[in-house]
């Protein structure tokens, strides 16, 4: 960390130093916390120079979420290029430093230590276990961070922002969808297949609470990320007589669950958390079953949405990255980049681009709207930024492999549930 040196210099040295600083445009006044005033009067700190704002991305380009990571990285680079073409932010160009952790927590910890001294914020960190391992470091460094993870356990840190809803809210919406549209009633059983860890545990909290309110029963099936054949789970759910299934896992698990269930005659509605679907699934043998049985609960709309902001983003992305799939990662990454860009703009207008300035600017926003979905409220670090969810359904012909089935809405009971969580 920077320290403040005592003023024991001769007048000649002080004068020479002042001239040198004026000539180079370097920092001329330290505040003892790593911040300084640049030539334009803006407070700066790690990751910010007189000409550059550096952001970091800890992503997965070689592991289980490699396709997601690539989409997010490309979308955020597109935003940076667009922003720089318009003059940058605070008269500074945006640079994004990308580190691939391959969904390996230890690699991610090492990558954070490598990147942290040179960036002001992280608009992308993929993986709940990765973010959990870095929480203390992020909090200590006052590094505004947008996880590509939505566990409620990530709430409550001033510097960490879960964008949109959390997994438990999504599952409350999923149970509501099933009771409203699929005829589930008191006494029925819903299966819930979920990953071990924060993702699955948080999703199960939401489904269990919602089921209790509706007089339903949850039949849970915990799995590992390495489990890709869910035949045993389907057999157990069939024996339990489930009338619907929730899944909070990855795309491979969703495809296996739906494909096996369809082949064994368990043709019940399946509702997935957003990370459980990828457009590539619509090119697999499971595609017909997915189209017939699957629904996806998401805080973000489908990339095939007619929202003007989404359509403009899709058009630009296809032009910049021809041949790359336009999936939910594109929307998620671009949305996060726009949000962090607005935070930087607001911090600059207030006179500072230190990490603390950026976090303060972020937390001052109670109606952040990028035109890419529901507005976000960032004013309370302990609360989800949004409470509204969309319901999507697979469509092999649509951008991203999904279309909107229901527009954004807040499921009954969400406010009550959150109030019970304090």
Query: What's the gyration radius in Å?
Result: 23 Å
Poorly predicted regions: 1-33
Count of β-strands: 13
CATH architecture of the largest domain: 3-Layer(aba) Sandwich
The level of helicity is 40-55%
Would you summarize the structure shown here?
The chain has 422 residues and is of the alpha/beta class. The chain is 41% helix and 17% strand. The chain folds into 2 domains: 52-165 and 304-386, Rossmann fold (3-Layer(aba) Sandwich), CATH 3.40.50; 167-298 and 390-420, 3-Layer(aba) Sandwich (Rossmann fold), CATH 3.40.50.
Structure description:
With 422 residues, the chain is an alpha/beta fold. The chain has 2 domains: 52-165 and 304-386, Response regulator (Rossmann fold), CATH 3.40.50.2300; 167-298 and 390-420, Rossmann fold. The protein contains 13 helices and 13 strands. The strands form 3 sheets. A 7-stranded mixed sheet has the order 8-7-9-10-11-12-13, sandwiched between helices. A 4-stranded parallel sheet has the order 4-3-5-6, sandwiched between helices. A two-stranded antiparallel sheet has the order 1-2. Strand 1 (36-37) and strand 2 (43-44) form a beta hairpin. It is globular, with a radius of gyration of 23 Å. The two termini are 36 Å apart. Residues 1-33 have low confidence and may be disordered.
């Amino acid at each position: 960390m920077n320290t403040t040196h005592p003023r024991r210099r001769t007048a000649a040295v002080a004068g020479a130093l002042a001239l040198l600083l004026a000539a180079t445009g370097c920092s001329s006044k330290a505040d003892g916390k790593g911040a300084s005033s640049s030539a334009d009067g803006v407070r700066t700190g790690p990751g910010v120079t007189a000409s550059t704002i550096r952001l970091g991305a800890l992503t997965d380009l070689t592991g289980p979420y490699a396709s997601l990571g690539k989409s997010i990285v490309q979308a955020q680079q597109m935003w940076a290029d667009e922003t720089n073409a318009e003059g940058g932010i605070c008269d500074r160009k945006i640079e994004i430093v990308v580190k691939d952790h391959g969904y390996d927590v230890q690699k991610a910890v090492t990558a954070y230590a490598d990147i942290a001294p040179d960036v002001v914020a992280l608009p992308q960190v993929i993986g709940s276990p990765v973010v959990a391992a870095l929480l203390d470091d992020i909090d200590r460094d006052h590094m505004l961070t947008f996880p590509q993870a939505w566990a409620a356990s990530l709430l409550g840190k001033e510097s960490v922002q879960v964008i949109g809803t959390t997994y438990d809210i999504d599952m409350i919406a999923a149970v509501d969808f099933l009771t409203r549209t699929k005829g589930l009633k008191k006494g029925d059983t819903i299966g819930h297949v979920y990953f071990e860890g924060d993702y699955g545990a948080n999703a199960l909290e939401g489904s269990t609470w919602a089921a209790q309110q509706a007089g339903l029963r949850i039949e849970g099936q915990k799995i590992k990320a390495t489990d890709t054949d869910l035949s045993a789970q389907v057999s157990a759910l069939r024996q339990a007589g489930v009338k619907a299934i929730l899944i909070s896992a990855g795309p491979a698990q969703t495809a296996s669950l739906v494909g096996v269930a369809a082949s064994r005659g368990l043709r019940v509605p399946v509702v997935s958390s957003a990370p459980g679907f990828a457009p590539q699934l619509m090119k697999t043998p499971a595609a017909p079953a997915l189209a017939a049985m699957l629904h996806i609960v998401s805080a973000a709309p489908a990339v095939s949405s007619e929202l003007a902001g989404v359509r403009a983003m899709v058009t630009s992305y296809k032009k910049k990255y021809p041949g790359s799939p336009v999936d939910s990662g594109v929307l998620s990454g671009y949305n996060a980049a726009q949000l962090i860009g607005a935070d930087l703009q607001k911090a600059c207008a207030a006179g500072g681009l230190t990490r603390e300035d950026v976090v303060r600017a972020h937390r001052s926003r109670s109606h952040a709207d990028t035109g890419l979905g529901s507005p976000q409220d960032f004013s309370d670090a302990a609360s989800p930024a949004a409470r509204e969810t969309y319901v999507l359904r697979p469509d092999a012909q649509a951008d991203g492999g999904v279309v909107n089935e229901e527009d954004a809405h807040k499921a009954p009971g969400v406010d009550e549930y959150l109030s019970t969580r304090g």
